[in-house]
């Protein structure tokens, strides 16, 4: 990439960053947490207040709306619209309720809040149902139902099914309504949803009452009444009692109807439910008239008039309060619009200032870039020279490293040559000499040139040489096999006690000759999974060395124990011991060769092979020895 191209890219980056900064100046700010908490609290407070003071609830909602607009808290504003629509619907402002619901729906769709969209659609469906638009209501209910099923909201599923059941009841589709109510009841019981359960019982009671199945209807109303009693819902209790009163009146059981209506009146009075008080008093009056008790009917007629008067006064007070709230909100909206216009003008001025400042910043940035490019050009040649010097230094370091590697390879080759020479020496001398001796002795014996006693001694000597030669040959063959890649025996389970017993029998002749006692103290139950030939070679070499360096009448002990995840196998002798220098030679994998206590000769190859084999098996050879105090060779292997 040329310097000119880099300059263009840098200038474009600066311009884009400045433009982004300009747009950010006019961007919406995220509302602070304190404002969010305050708006949410006002919404929840209004939701609780709407049952007993509509004007106060609406005033709190309007305050929440103003705060949400000012702080751009979209979710809080949508929730406010949802609750406002519920209040408008409650006091009969159906059209305003619908328009408010749709404003909430639009905001929730922008926020992609699926659950809230379903709740708003559910409220719009209820408004449609009350307006007689059943098909539209059913469609909206089903849309919400699909959402609740998708998120497995059992309570709302039960509520929707109850709502759809009431529509089916109003359309005289009683069988479908019954199925919906029973589905809602089952879901509510399964999920311990008390409100849905008592609502289902109440709806089923109305359904059976329409069918004139009064016994079933009474049972359902009583179940709903029991749930309301547990919930201490006086309003719900009064509703059930009014339905029971109506049902008793249909059956011409006026006394039961009057008694139930009076109970409903008492419960409605305790929660100041004037609409239920009016219905209860009306039922009492109608029942007394049908019984012909005109005086009692007149007395309750007076109560009904008082209720209607109180209701009218309350409605008038609510209406006045509501109108005051609306007026205050309209005034606030007017002031807010003026403030918004003022803010817009301020934003325009700020945007102009930011734009001018941005262009100035761009010019300064371009000049700074040009100065930077000139500075970079001056540094370029210096950097290039420095890089070339670094390359020369790296090449020099690489050459030094290469020389070191060549030196290391030479050392390895020298070690290999020494190993080769030693092996050739062992094969030419330590293997060939016993064979030549054997041939000479056998010739003398066969020709009868030695007495029988001397022949027996020579044959015993040959047997001893045979054991040593066989051991050396096994060591050489196994070492050569280990040097060949891919040559590895299968691992099997080996009894260490039996292995040592076999090796003891194999060395019985040298042990007997030097009168050495070999004690096999290994646990007969102890086993190890390893290469059988490898462990045999190692143990045989250690026992052979112990015999070689132990004086006549001495002893050798074979012991074992486990510690953690490792097995420790020890060959201990009472021999002449080793100096620390000798131990270091063995540990450094150097040839260590010396004459035994009875002038036995060795190749010096055994201990090196043992250490190599144990290391490849993941183990370690531990040597403990002092001159004149014997030696202990311990094999540490993973269990």
Automatic annotation (TrEMBL):
The keyword Kinase applies. Its EC number is 2.7.13.3. InterPro entries: HATPase_C_sf, HATPase_dom, His_kinase_dom, HisK_dim/P_dom, HisK_dim/P_sf, Sig_transdc_His_kin-like_C, TPR-like_helical_dom_sf, TPR_rpt. It catalyses: ATP + protein L-histidine = ADP + protein N-phospho-L-histidine. One of its GO terms (molecular function) is kinase activity. It comes from the Bacteria. The keyword Disulfide bond does not apply. TPR repeats lie at residues 158-191. The chain crosses the membrane at residues 351-373. Coiled coil: none annotated. It is an enzyme of class 2 (transferase). Residues 426-639 form the Histidine kinase domain. Residues 1-26 form the signal peptide. Keywords: Kinase, Membrane, Phosphoprotein, Signal, TPR repeat, Transferase, Transmembrane, Transmembrane helix. PANTHER family: HYBRID SIGNAL TRANSDUCTION HISTIDINE KINASE C, TWO-COMPONENT HISTIDINE KINASE. This is histidine kinase. It comes from Sediminibacterium roseum.
């Amino acid at each position: 990439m040329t310097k000119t191209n880099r300059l263009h890219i840098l200038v474009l980056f600066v311009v884009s960053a400045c433009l982004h900064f300009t747009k950010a100046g006019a961007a919406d700010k995220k509302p602070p947490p304190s404002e969010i908490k305050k708006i949410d609290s006002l919404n929840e407070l209004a939701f609780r207040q709407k049952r007993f003071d509509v004007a106060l609830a609406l005033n709190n909602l309007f305050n929440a709306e103003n705060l949400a607009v000012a702080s751009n808290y979209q979710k809080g504003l949508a929730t406010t619209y949802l609750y406002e629509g519920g209040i408008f619907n409650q006091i009969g402002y159906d059209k305003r309720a619908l328009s408010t619901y749709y404003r909430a729906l639009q905001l929730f769709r922008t926020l992609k809040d699926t659950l809230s969209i379903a709740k708003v659609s559910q409220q719009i469906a209820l408004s449609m149902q009350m307006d007689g638009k059943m098909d539209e209501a059913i469609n909206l209910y089903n849309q919400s139902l699909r959402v609740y099923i998708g998120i497995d909201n059992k309570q709302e599923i039960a509520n929707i099914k109850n709502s759809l059941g009431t529509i089916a009841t109003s359309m005289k589709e009683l069988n479908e309504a019954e199925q919906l109510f029973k589905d809602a009841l089952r879901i509510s019981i399964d999920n311990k949803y008390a409100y849905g359960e008592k609502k289902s019982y109440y709806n089923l009671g109305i359904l059976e009452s329409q069918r004139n199945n009064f016994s079933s209807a009474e049972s359902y109303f009583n179940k709903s009444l029991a749930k309301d009693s547990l919930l201490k819902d006086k309003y719900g209790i009064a509703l059930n009692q009014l339905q029971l009163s109506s049902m008793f009146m249909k059956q011409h059981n006026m006394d039961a109807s009057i008694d139930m209506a009076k109970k409903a009146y008492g419960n409605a009075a305790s929660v100041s439910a004037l609409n239920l008080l009016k219905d209860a008093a009306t039922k009492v009056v109608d029942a007394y008239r049908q019984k012909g008790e005109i005086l009692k009917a007149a007395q309750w007629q007076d109560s009904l008039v008082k209720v209607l008067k109180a209701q009218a006064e309350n409605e008038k007070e609510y209406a006045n309060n509501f109108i005051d709230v609306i007026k205050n909100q309209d005034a606030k909206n007017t002031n807010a619009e003026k403030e918004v216009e003022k803010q817009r003008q301020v934003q325009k001025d700020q945007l102009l200032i930011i734009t001018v400042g941005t262009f100035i910043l761009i010019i300064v940035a371009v000049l700074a870039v040009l100065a930077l490019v000139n500075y970079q050009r001056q540094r370029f040649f210096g950097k290039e020279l420095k890089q070339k010097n670094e390359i020369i230094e790296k090449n020099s370091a690489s050459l030094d490293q290469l020389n070191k590697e060549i030196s290391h390879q030479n050392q390895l080759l020298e070690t290999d040559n020494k190993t080769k020479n030693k092996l050739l020496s062992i094969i030419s001398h330590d293997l060939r000499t016993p064979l030549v001796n054997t041939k000479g002795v056998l010739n003398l014996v066969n020709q009868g040139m030695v007495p029988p006693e001397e022949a027996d001694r020579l044959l015993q000597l040959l047997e001893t040489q045979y054991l040593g030669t066989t051991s050396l040959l096994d060591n050489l063959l196994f070492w050569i096999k280990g040097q060949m890649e891919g040559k590895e025996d299968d691992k099997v389970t080996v009894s260490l006690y039996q292995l040592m017993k076999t090796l003891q029998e194999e060395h019985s002749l040298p042990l007997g000759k030097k009168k050495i006692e070999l004690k096999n103290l290994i646990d007969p139950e102890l086993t190890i999974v390893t290469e059988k030939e490898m462990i045999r070679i190692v143990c045989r070499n250690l026992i052979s060395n112990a015999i070689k360096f132990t004086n006549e009448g001495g002893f050798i002990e074979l012991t074992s124990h486990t510690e953690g995840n490792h097995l420790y196998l020890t060959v201990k002798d009472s021999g002449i011991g080793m100096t620390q220098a000798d131990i270091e030679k063995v540990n450094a994998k150097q040839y260590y060769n010396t004459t035994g206590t009875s002038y036995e000769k060795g190749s010096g190859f055994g201990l090196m092979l043992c250490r190599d084999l144990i290391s490849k098996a993941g183990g370690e050879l531990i040597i403990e020895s002092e001159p004149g105090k014997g030696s202990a060779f311990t094999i540490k292997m993973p269990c």
